[in-house]
Design a protein that fits this description.
The complex is a heterodimer of chains A (444) and B (348). Chain A has 444 residues and is mainly alpha-helical. Chain A has 13 helices and 8 strands. Chain A is globular, with a radius of gyration of 23 Å. Chain A starts with a helix and ends in a 9-residue tail after the last helix. Chain B has one domain: Formate dehydrogenase/DMSO reductase fold, CATH 1.20.1630. Chain B has 13 helices and 2 strands. The mean pLDDT of chain B is 87. Classes of the chains: A mainly alpha (444), B mainly alpha (348).
């Protein structure tokens, strides 16, 4: 049983992490393409239209991979997490079914129109279809975050006679206090990814001295959006999300921050390695009292450490949780630094000639993907050992009849398949970038 | 309320089979009816703008099934573990085949994805048929309402059944021929010239495959699950569904002969809808019969969510489906008519 549990967890973790690389770019780039289309219409500037068409090509590849890797997610709730589905289907079935009905139909229908219907629809219609694809992807994101928010912070339910949860208030589920900040934080993260990708491609064109007019457009939009959303990630959305965790999952906060002992005026650890045998941080580099202040706006406030909780309620992989959280926050800080400097030079009209900074922008594109992944790992590892916080342990949620051998078989299959998909994806995207926007100028 | 949701889920699954059925069918005949690159691009362009929207029906149906009947979702998805994951892989490969093929203009690249697209489509049709066969035959449910079936055991229906036995394989062939015909009808309707002639020709042959496989399948169903006819004897109006089936079949033969492709496609749609509706009507209120002890069968009453949730769901479901119907009408209108071959840079 323990083996099957491990396989099921690995498979879900792997497939969902791989999957989320794509929708984050879809959701962010959807917004940026809408903005490009909008500028093209307002200024009647064909260059922005061509830029939008260029990104639409990459968007299409990305969307396709997002769709195909997304299909297994919904299905795995049933195949590998049957007990969980039986237990929670009465509540989260709502949000998952709404995603299908409201978001998937919208985005899939209008994606076809957006990619193939520019001639048939005209500019205004084409803009509307771009907007609806963007809207669909953000609605989809909302229902997924709402589902996760319920697992983090179950509300609006009642237990039935069989011990399963049933929905008691629809609006309670939709307006779960956990949803709001988690949603905007997640979406802003997606925009950060897309901004860095766009700026990175722009930097590549400038550095390679080709398609420079497009390169400048990409850098301008990427940096402007990048600075706004990178700052928004830290404050207010990241700060508010942290407080959600502090008030509702204090043991998770302690594990994320590497705080083993409860104390007043708790320090904020910047770097260090959790030692789970001696229950302390090795080589800590910290700022005194800052954690108390950030959490409660009071320098001497008491912050509960791991010692305040039963060990069976501790997240089961504290070092990984701690590192995920610190990677997310550390990268987020670096993003702000890069974008602030870039925006400053852009404002001074020096950015396009600052090759050292263009190099940094060019090489920075993988890191938002890592930060987003680390952020989700923080949320989901932090929820452990619960599958539904306080209601169902993760170990109790797996399918009772699926053996470890079968799960391993499919896990290996997914590993192989996703490796191939990843390689092909990179190949095609690099090819499109190399092809350049001018080649995408043909109107369809 | 449970009955209503049973109808809704059945409706969504039927929509999926009818809609994705024709683009899977187009995949099955892809290598047969289209020989040159231009011809293959015509076939792909006939389904290009719509296949993703069609496929969404299975996600939406899956989500709705999860929401309305959580225990059924949990039990059947974990019990049919391997075939379901394999179906997912096939869906993935098929989608990639359609979407990746046109990005690199190289014969080997294109041939590779053509074969992937076609093989995945063929296997999907067989698996979907086998899945329907499993539901009709019943599965070894335990006390908690769970089961697990390996891919195959001894190819016999009893005692320990696998996903594939001779009956479900037969059902897989029924589905293969049905979707081949359905897809060929669609391609014939959307294209001209050589491709259209070949598609019509395929349809005229594969419809006989439908007849040759589905008649024995029907006899087997009657012998292993005679109670499927109980609902029909107690509610005679239900015979309208098998009647649709027969009409659809006759229509496929007649209109194919008359070369009226639109009507032929309508006939295969009627045939598929009639077949699924008959099955749903016959099984009701069972949704997953037990092959072990009939009392363990999952029915809509012992697997459903509670009434508050189902009631709220009805409100948003109707809203959502009205929107979705709007999109579908709009998109099919925009891309109506015969497929013209676009330039290499646009389209597939």
């Amino acid at each position: 049983m323990q083996d099957a549990f491990l396989m099921d967890r690995l498979q879900f973790a792997f497939t969902v992490s791989f999957h989320y690389l794509f929708p984050q770019l879809t959701m962010g780039m959807g917004l940026l393409i809408v903005i490009l289309k909008w500028i093209a219409m307002r200024k009647n500037n064909e260059r922005y239209n061509t830029a939008a068409r260029f990104w639409a090509k990459i968007f299409a590849i990305n969307f396709a991979v997002g769709v195909v890797t997304g299909i297994p997610m919904e299905f795995q709730f049933g195949t590998n997490w049957a007990k969980f589905s039986t237990f929670a289907g009465g509540v989260i079935g709502q949000t998952l079914a709404m995603e299908g009905v409201f978001a998937f139909f919208l985005e899939s229908s209008f994606l076809g129109l957006f990619l193939f219907g520019e001639k048939k629809l005209g500019q205004r219609g084409h803009f509307v279809s771009a907007f609806l694809v963007f809207l669909g992807s953000w609605i989809s994101g909302f229902f997924i975050v709402a589902t996760d928010a319920w697992m983090q912070h179950p509300v609006a339910y009642a237990m039935d006679a069989a011990g399963n949860v049933q929905l008691q208030s629809f609006w309670g589920l939709i307006f779960n206090p956990w949803v709001g900040w988690q949603y905007v934080h997640t979406m802003a993260g997606a925009v950060v990814t897309a901004s860095f990708v766009m700026a990175s491609v722009g930097a590549y064109y400038l550095l390679a001295r080709r398609e420079e007019e497009y390169g400048k457009i990409f850098i301008r939009l990427g940096v402007v959006m990048g600075i706004v959303f990178s700052l928004f990630m830290a404050f207010p959305s990241g700060d508010a999300q942290g407080k959600n965790v502090a008030y509702n999952q204090p043991v998770t906060l302690a594990a994320m921050e590497g705080l083993f002992q409860t104390k007043e005026g708790a320090e904020l650890i910047l770097i260090g390695q959790p030692d789970m045998d001696k229950l302390r941080m090795d080589n800590p580099l910290h700022v005194p009292k800052l954690l108390s202040f950030l959490t409660y706006y009071h320098w001497e406030a008491e912050v509960k450490g791991l010692d305040a909780f039963q060990r069976s309620d501790w997240p089961d992989n504290i070092p990984l949780l701690y590192y995920s959280y610190h990677i997310m926050v550390g990268l987020g800080t670096i993003f702000i630094a890069i974008m602030v400097i870039s925006a400053l030079l852009l404002w001074k009209r020096k950015l396009y000639a600052a090759r050292w900074l263009l190099w940094i922008l060019l090489l920075s594109f993988p890191f938002p993907f890592i930060a987003n992944t680390a952020g989700w790992m923080t949320a989901e590892l932090g929820r452990q050992p619960w599958l539904v916080y306080g209601l169902m342990r993760t170990v109790d949620g797996i399918s009772p009849t699926v053996s470890a051998g079968n799960s391993l078989f499919t896990l290996l299959g997914f590993l192989g398949m996703y490796f191939v998909i990843g390689v092909l994806y990179l190949l095609l995207v690099i090819k499109e970038i190399n092809h350049g926007p001018e080649a995408a100028a043909v109107r369809r | 309320m449970e009955i209503l949701w049973f109808i809704i889920v059945a409706f969504m699954l039927a929509m999926y089979v009818v809609l994705d059925g024709f683009d899977i069918g187009a995949g099955i005949i892809h290598l047969l009816v289209a020989k040159t690159d231009d011809e293959r691009r015509i076939v792909l362009n006939s389904i290009g703008p719509v296949w993703d929207g069609n496929e969404v029906w299975i996600l939406a149906a899956g989500g709705t099934l999860y929401f309305a009947f959580p225990l059924l979702y949990a039990s059947s998805f974990s019990g049919f573990y391997l075939p379901l994951i394999i179906v997912l892989w096939l869906l993935m490969l098929r989608g990639l085949g359609i979407e990746f093929r046109h990005h690199i203009h190289h014969t080997l690249w294109k041939s590779f994805w053509d074969v992937v697209f076609s093989c995945a489509s063929i296997l999907l049709a067989v698996f979907f048929g086998a899945a329907l066969g499993n539901v009709v035959r019943g599965v070894p449910l335990n006390q908690e309402g769970y089961f697990f079936e390996p891919l195959w055991t001894t190819f016999t229906i009893v005692p320990e059944s696998g996903i594939l036995d001779w009956f479900t394989t037969l059902m897989g062939l029924v589905a293969l021929f049905t979707l081949t015909t359905h897809g060929a009808n669609y391609v014939a309707m959307k294209t001209e010239g050589e491709v259209q002639l070949r598609a019509r020709n395929v349809a005229s042959k594969s419809v006989w495959g439908v007849i040759v496989t589905s008649v024995p399948a029907l006899l087997v169903v009657t012998s292993i699950r005679p109670e499927i006819w109980n609902n029909f004897s107690s509610h005679a109006w239900g015979y309208i569904f098998p009647l649709f089936d027969v009409l659809g079949l006759a229509g496929m033969l007649y209109f194919n002969f008359r070369k009226q492709d639109g009507m032929t496609f309508l006939s295969s749609t009627t045939f598929i809808a009639g077949m699924l509706a008959s099955t749903a009507f016959g099984l009701f209120p069972n949704v997953l019969p037990a092959s072990t002890d009939p009392n363990l069968s999952l029915t809509i009453y012992n697997v459903s969510a509670k009434s508050y949730g189902l009631g709220v769901g009805l409100a948003w479901w109707i809203l959502g489906i009205v929107f979705a119907a709007g999109y579908f009408i709009f998109i099919y209108r925009t891309f109506r008519g015969k497929v013209a071959l676009p330039t290499e840079e646009s389209g597939y």
